[in-house]
Backbone:
């Protein structure tokens, strides 16, 4: 309970800190929005007859803004520059501080990105079915948790090599290619599709958008939730192992 | 001639600096090739579902993507590392340092340092281009190859001029941060402009000529060079560079220096 209160405080503090950098936030949101908007343009040009393309990519834009994770900047750079010292001394689990920053950043992304979503909906004439959106919300929450744990675990690799830019970049590329941004998983070639469905990247990004689009059967939705739960457990364990092993290696001066 | 010598020295210094961090170099190389590979794979997936994209076949679209990577790589290597932080130099007065040196300030401010690792993107782009050319039905003629090279030069010149123009805005409105919008719009260049719907297509061709980065050079190489871009292109590039110079000078007159 105490940790939840602390987390709420971190979220509040980070949210207020961001208020001073609103124009920078705007630039971050625009950068995050480019890939889904380009995906929308490409796929509607490639398959003009197919329904649901615009709905999918607009839902994906919302998911992208809600699950965005910058732990490379908050965690890795903290390790590199020695700012982690400050966090280690505090009487609470280390993860609370970056998690608080993460949640506040996502709230800002959604807030600033909302007009982009509304404009995209108006321009394409897309309307969402309320039932599908309700079904997608738990998947969105799981995707948000999963993407945080994934990026956090990658960022912690800086405890070994100091810089984790290459590793994090690799993660970003995988999420782009297999998460549903480069191509919606249902449109992937048959030979790759089963992998796309089972790998954790769709669970982080594409799956909630697919539910909101309304193209999935009940069985597919249940299966998708199963994959999400599995990967969430796996990455929670991975993040914990990486942290306990890595923090023993941590040496720093400064901070 | 002096500018060429300065440029060579700048490149050599920057290269030595980046070779000092070898592990990072390895990861950067890996990430850069994977990034190009991911873009290529994404394009490949689109073509498993469609025959053409905006009238372009897979081979033509790969040639376009390779050309886009080459121009982008040149921008990231030589221009972007200088102008990305230009606004800050105007705000805190660090521009004084550039103005005092015996080299034209516009040259030093826009090409005074470079990031040689960006050339990895150019190498990736060349590799993609070769893949794309291999998939074309007929190999391009020497004339088409020359036209491509010319259009590539025009694209780089216009990219430099537009980036300088955008950076010069800082003299009038230092609180604006238009850079990120530039890089966001830039990414629209990786696909054929004919793919976008109107009015976006019109805007990307005439208002913000993103079509110059990939579409127009690739068109010259794969679909034959048409005389209008070949004749009008160099004139447009010279005009853009002149404009950049005029704006730069006008901006400098407003610069009052802040510190030092």
Residues:
């Amino acid at each position: 309970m105490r940790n939840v209160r602390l987390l709420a405080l971190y979220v509040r503090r980070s949210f207020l800190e961001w208020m001073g950098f609103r124009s920078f936030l705007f630039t971050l949101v625009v950068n995050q929005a480019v890939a889904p908007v380009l995906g929308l343009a490409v796929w509607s040009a490639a398959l003009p007859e197919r329904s649901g393309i615009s709905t999918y990519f607009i839902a994906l834009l919302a998911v992208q803004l809600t699950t965005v994770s910058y732990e490379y900047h908050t965690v890795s750079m903290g390790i590199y520059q020695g700012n982690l010292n400050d966090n280690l001394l505090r009487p609470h689990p280390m993860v609370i501080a970056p998690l608080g920053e993460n949640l506040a950043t996502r709230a800002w992304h959604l807030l600033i990105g909302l007009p982009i979503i509304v404009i995209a909906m108006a321009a394409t004439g897309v309307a969402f079915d309320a039932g599908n959106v309700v079904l997608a919300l738990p998947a969105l929450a799981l995707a948000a948790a999963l993407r945080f744990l994934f990026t956090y675990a990658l960022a912690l690799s800086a405890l070994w090599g100091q810089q984790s830019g290459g590793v994090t970049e690799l993660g970003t590329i995988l999420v782009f290619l297999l998460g549903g941004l480069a191509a919606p998983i249902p449109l992937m070639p048959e030979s790759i599709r089963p992998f796309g469905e089972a790998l954790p990247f769709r669970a982080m990004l594409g799956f909630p958008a697919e539910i909101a689009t309304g193209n999935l059967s009940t069985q597919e939705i249940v299966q998708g939730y199963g994959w999400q739960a599995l990967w969430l457990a796996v990455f929670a364990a991975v993040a914990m192992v990486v942290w306990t092993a890595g923090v023993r290696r941590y040496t720093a001066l400064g901070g | 001639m002096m500018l060429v010598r300065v440029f060579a020295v700048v490149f050599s210094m920057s290269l030595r600096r980046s070779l000092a961090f070898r592990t990072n170099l390895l990861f950067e190389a890996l990430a850069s090739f994977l990034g190009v590979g991911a873009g290529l794979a994404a394009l490949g997936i689109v073509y498993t579902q469609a025959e053409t994209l905006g009238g372009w076949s897979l081979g033509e679209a790969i040639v376009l993507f390779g050309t886009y990577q080459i121009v982008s790589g040149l921008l990231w290597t030589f221009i972007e590392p200088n102008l990305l932080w230009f606004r800050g130099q105007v705000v805190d007065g660090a521009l004084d340092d550039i103005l005092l040196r015996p080299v034209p300030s516009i040259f030093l401010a826009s090409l005074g340092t470079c990031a040689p690792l960006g050339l990895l993107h150019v190498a990736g782009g060349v590799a993609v281009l070769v893949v794309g050319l291999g998939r074309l039905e007929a190999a391009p003629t020497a004339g088409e190859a020359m036209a491509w090279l010319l259009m590539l030069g025009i694209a780089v010149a216009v990219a430099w001029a537009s980036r300088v123009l955008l950076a010069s805005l800082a003299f009038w409105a230092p609180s604006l941060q238009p850079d990120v919008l530039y890089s966001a719009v830039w990414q629209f260049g990786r696909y054929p402009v004919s793919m976008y719907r109107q009015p976006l297509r019109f805007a990307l061709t005439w208002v913000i000529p993103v079509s110059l980065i990939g579409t127009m050079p690739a068109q010259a190489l794969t679909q034959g060079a048409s005389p209008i871009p070949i004749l009008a292109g160099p004139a447009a590039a010279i005009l853009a560079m002149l404009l950049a110079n005029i704006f730069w000078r006008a901006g400098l007159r407003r610069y009052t220096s802040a510190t030092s």
Summary: Chain A has one domain: 2-252.
